[in-house]
Every structure is written in C-alpha cells, then in structure tokens.
C-alpha cells in the first residue's frame, strides 16, 4: 500500500469526544477512529498526531482507549493553551481555589501563547497533513512544504436547509470559508464532491476526489444477548421493532418518520410493533421532537427513544430489527444504513443526495417528503417477510464492497504518490 515511507501528520481532534456519549460522538468521530486504525497498519508510514489545543488532554486519554502506542508523537499548537482549556472545562464556574489560580496565572499565559502562535508558528518535520474534518490551523497552513489534504463531509450548513438557529457557525467559518485552492480535498461521496464544487470556488474537479467510507468491522449479523439488550433499552417484551439511528436533528426527517409510522399502525390496527429511535440529540431540536411525539396522543408510547447506543450494542439492535428507516433530507454519506445492511437488516432510505450511492438497489428508496411513500414502504416490509429476507441478502452483498481498508488504501495511494 505504501510505496515510499513518508511522514504524515493526522488531525485526530475528533477523538477528543471519545468519553462523551452523545451527538458529538457520531459520524466524524468514527471515521477518524477507523481511519487511524488503518493508517497505523501501514508499516512504511511514519505517523504523528495533531489535535486542536482544546482536545489535547482528551486525546492523550483517547490513544490509551484506542490502544495506540502512548509514545506516539502528538502535536498541538500550544501546550499552555491546552492546559488553559483543561482547567477551563474542569473548573469553570467553580469556587475551588484551583480555578482562581487558573484565572490569575493561566489566562494571561494562554493569551500570550496564542499571540506567539501567530508570530512564531511551530515548525513540523512531517511532509503531509491529513484531516478528517478540521481545516489546517494557522501554524500548519504556514508550512509551505507540507502538502495538505482535508476530508470534506457535506455542505448542509450553507444550503438553506436549516434555519438560523441550527446553522453550525464553526463549520461555515472554520472549515468552509477557509478552503484554499492549493490544497487537495477528499469527499465521502460523489454527491458531496459536486456540492463543494458548486458552492465553493476553491474546490474543483482537479483538486478533489471521492473516496467512499465504510462500516466498521464489528457490524455483522448478531443474535447474541438480544433479550438483555431489549431490557437495557426498554424495548417491550413480545413486540417487534423498527429501528432508526441518527443524531436527532431537523434534517433527519424524524417527525415525518414517526408520524407516518403511527398512520401505518392505525390504518391496519397493528399492535405488535414499536418504533425504536436511537442517537444523541441536538438540544435545540429536543423540544420540537418531544412536542411532535406528544401530539401522537395514545400512540406516543409506541415511540421509544433510547438515546445514545453503546458501540457494542449497535450490531445486535440492527440485526434484530424488522427493518431500518433513514429517510433523511440530506446526507453527505449516510453511515447508519450501511451499518444496518452489514448486519442483514433491510433498509428504507430517501432517494436523495448521497444515499443512492451507498444503498444502491439493496434498499427501498422513497421521497423524503412523501408521507404516502413512507406508509407504503412500511406496508411492503411488514406484510411481506419474503421481501424483507430478499433485501437482507441484498444489503449484506452491497455492504461487502465497502471497507475501511479500501478507504485508507485509496487515501494513502493519493497522498503518498503526490
């Protein structure tokens, strides 16, 4: 895989969320985690890690959890700033004397350190910089001889899909607006690549390439400990379930999904199935979703919110679901449907954005904004076990063409060849 030994600096800031089980520990976290594992297998590659200062202390913990050599080189722009952030997060608004010391001593030091980063940027020996999300920091951008590669995931926040209260200003200001034409960009789907070419003049056909993602190796059919998992997540005994997993946010179409599920069971007087909704949630969307579920009146108990699902439990929940629903309005890639297919779970997805690239003909594709098509898709799977079995086989076959080894090989073949 690695024709020539080169020094690569990988931004692993996303792993700073390894101990936080919620919305921040989702897609990009797992992309970073799985690609790092694959990069470490390349014996001809000299790998070092970079992290934003806010995550420096968490990254040091993360590499122990991931099982990485604790002696691996970890860069950050300023360890003083990292210490500043550690005390800020740990003791903010506390009356402890240690926080007072932090206020008096560390804040001025951190301020001078930040100024120093701009006046005297750090020098790196690495020839290549690769980030799974963050744009290169100022000190890395100053390394003129270092080739820089950034993985781009989606253009959601600049397309008008969200109203202002949901816009991720960090993405807009710190990623999208900082894109420079002299760097190279990988995208997780061809749809995402064309989106960036369309919306950002610094991304072109020449400086971008699509490299598809994958489901992690642990996603495979599993029936083990299912009764224990049902109890853990309060899934009622004697009930079948439909599964959905995503960050609970507006574009995931959850309000329509649960509303049409209730229409489906009311239409056919069905009482043997519930809808299980997993995933960390956006606080700004929390009340909106809760209100929509409350409006389902006597059917609201059919919707079971189980929150963030532990990594080891996910394959079991996918494997034992009747089917999986992911009719999102917009996706840069769409990992959950691929994970579900890897576990032999039939899937219903929207026919828009990147999802057709992921699912192909191995799932039922519908218009995300059609209530009627949602109900019809539920009917097809509920009343036809043979169809579910057919799509289960199709999904397993489709999922087998994706792997993180393949993803890492494609990334490295480009970065090491340039």
Overall description:
It contains 16 helices and 13 strands. By secondary structure, the protein is of the alpha/beta class. It has two domains: 179 residues, Glycogen Phosphorylase B (Rossmann fold, 3-Layer(aba) Sandwich); 174 residues, Glycogen Phosphorylase B (Rossmann fold). A seven-stranded parallel sheet has the order 3-2-1-4-5-6-7. Strands 8-9-10 form a three-stranded parallel sheet, sandwiched between helices. Helix 3 runs antiparallel to helix 4. The mean pLDDT is 86.
Helix tally?
16
Oligomer: single chain
Number of strands: 13
How many structural domains are formed by the residues?
Answer: 2
Identify the CATH class of the largest domain.
Alpha Beta
Task: Bin the helical content.
Answer: 40-55%
As for the CATH topology of the largest domain, it is Rossmann fold
- The spatial strand order of the largest sheet comes to 3-2-1-4-5-6-7
Please outline what is shown here.
By secondary structure, the chain is of the alpha/beta class.
Write the layout of secondary structure elements.
Layout: E1 6-11, H1 27-40, E2 45-50, H2 56-66, E3 74-75, H3 79-91, H4 97-119, E4 128-131, H5 138-141, E5 147-152, H6 169-175, E6 184-187, H7 190-199, E7 208-210, H8 226-232, E8 240-245, H9 254-267, E9 273-278, H10 283-294, E10 303-307, H11 314-320, E11 324-326, H12 335-342, E12 347-350, H13 355-359, E13 364-366, H14 371-383, H15 385-399, H16 404-417
Helix pairs in contact: 1-16, 3-4, 9-14, 12-15
């Amino acid at each position: 895989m690695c024709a020539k030994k080169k020094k690569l600096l990988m931004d692993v800031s996303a792993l700073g969320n390894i101990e936080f089980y919620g919305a921040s520990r989702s897609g990009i976290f797992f992309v970073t985690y799985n690609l790092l594992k694959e990069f470490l297998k390349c014996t001809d590659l000299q790998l070092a890690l970079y992290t934003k200062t806010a995550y420096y202390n968490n990254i040091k913990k993360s590499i122990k959890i991931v099982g990485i050599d604790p002696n691996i080189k970890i860069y950050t722009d300023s360890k003083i700033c990292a210490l500043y952030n550690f005390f800020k997060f740990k003791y903010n608004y506390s009356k402890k004397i240690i926080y007072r010391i932090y206020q008096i001593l560390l804040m001025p030091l951190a301020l001078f350190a930040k100024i120093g980063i701009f006046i005297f940027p750090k020098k790196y020996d690495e020839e290549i910089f690769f980030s799974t999300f963050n744009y290169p920091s100022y000190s890395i951008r100053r390394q003129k001889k270092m080739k820089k590669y950034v993985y781009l995931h989606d253009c959601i926040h600049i397309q008008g899909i969200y109203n202002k209260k949901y816009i991720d200003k960090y993405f807009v200001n710190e990623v999208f607006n900082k894109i420079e034409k002299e760097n190279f960009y990988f995208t997780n789907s061809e749809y995402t690549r064309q989106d960036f070419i369309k919306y950002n003049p610094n991304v072109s056909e020449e400086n971008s390439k699509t490299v598809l993602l994958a489901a992690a190796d642990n996603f495979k059919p599993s029936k083990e400990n299912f009764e224990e998992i049902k109890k853990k997540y309060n899934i009622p005994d004697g009930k079948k379930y439909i599964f959905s997993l995503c960050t609970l946010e507006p574009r995931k179409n959850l309000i329509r999904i649960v509303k049409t599920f209730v229409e489906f069971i009311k239409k056919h007087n069905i009482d043997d199935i519930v809808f299980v909704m997993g995933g960390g949630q956006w606080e700004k969307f929390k009340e909106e979703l809760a209100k929509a579920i409350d409006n389902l009146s006597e059917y609201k108990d059919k919707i079971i919110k189980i929150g963030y699902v532990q990594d080891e439990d996910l394959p079991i929940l996918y494997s034992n679901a009747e089917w999986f629903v992911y009719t999102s309005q917009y996706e840069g890639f769409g990992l959950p449907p691929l994970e579900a297919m890897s576990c032999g779970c039939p899937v219903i997805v929207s026919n828009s954005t990147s999802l057709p690239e992921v699912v192909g003909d191995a799932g039922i594709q519908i218009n995300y904004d059609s209530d009627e098509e949602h109900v019809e898709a539920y009917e097809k799977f509920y009343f036809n076990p043979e169809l579910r079995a057919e799509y289960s086989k199709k999904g397993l076959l489709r999922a087998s063409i994706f792997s993180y080894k393949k993803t890492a090989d494609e990334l490295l073949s480009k970065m090491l060849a340039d």
